[in-house]
Amino acid sequence: MSFNTTDPYGTVGSLPSISGGIPTQPDFAPAILFCVLYGLLLPACIWRTHTYRRPLRLMWTFIRLTLFAIMRIATFGLRASEAHSASLPNNPVPNLGAFIAEQVLLGIGFIVLADLMIELLKSHMWRTDVPPAAETRWALPEGRFSLQRIVRIMHLALITAIALGIAAAAQYSGAINNASTASQVQTLRVVSVALCLAVCGLLILVSLLLLITHPHLGVYRTLYLLAVSCILVIIPAYRLSSVTASPSLAALISTDTQVKFYILQGAMEWLVSVSLILVDARIWFFAGGETAQMMLGSSTTSPPYGNGEQLALGQKNEGTYV
């Protein structure tokens, strides 16, 4: 679908809440680069997911990471195609459908990463592979029940964010020439991003509190969760600023807009994804619980409170994991 009019930006300029600007020729190289980076990451995601095949809930958690990598290959593939076909000033958006699809994928993909981080933090909080004195109150039966309720609320918030993003996407085409629909789409996307931002902020807060109050869980492990959460929160913060802004048409194709997008969303998402497959979540965060620990123990002899990799990564020092 081409737009060759006296005001070539008129149609795309009326689209609400554009993220990442309008892909143009300079976007082709970085878009291809991210396609390659996620293509290289995909086999690692599949391998890591396979190692987490027991219990099934842990495998499902990381299947979502694999799906995210596939989603981003599609996202940047669309962006590269748009950039290759774009022609300024007469035809900035050669395919409106592809442009909208890219915007939809950008709006909901990163929420998967936040959802995965919730599971890792939950597992870390109720781990029982540390000395009894180091366990948190969340590791006790009554504590687990309370924590599970909180986690469900956080998951529900992210599911709501995805639903709002999809609802906004369903109205995207109709928002082009309808100011009322455009306003509604922007509101839906703002609420969606704000929910994810709140969840990411809570992940940082809880990680920081664990670092201060429960160092026995493993300082490096908790620092890892804190660091990844701090990287993750950059994405919804950037997106909130972009979906609430009303940039000029010139700004939508500016180098500054593109650089911010590739650094503050593209690079941050990739770094979080890499971080999530670099370590064995069963060892570092007790992901999968006792079932996963039994599977680990079947392939190696486990010393008290951890297996060989646990002791290599976090040596016990007077009952404290570091």
TrEMBL record:
Organism for this UniProt entry: Calocera cornea HHB12733
Swiss-Prot/TrEMBL keywords: Membrane, Transmembrane, Transmembrane helix
Transmembrane segments: 28-46, 58-78, 98-118, 150-170, 190-211, 223-241, 261-285
Protein's UniProt name: Uncharacterized protein
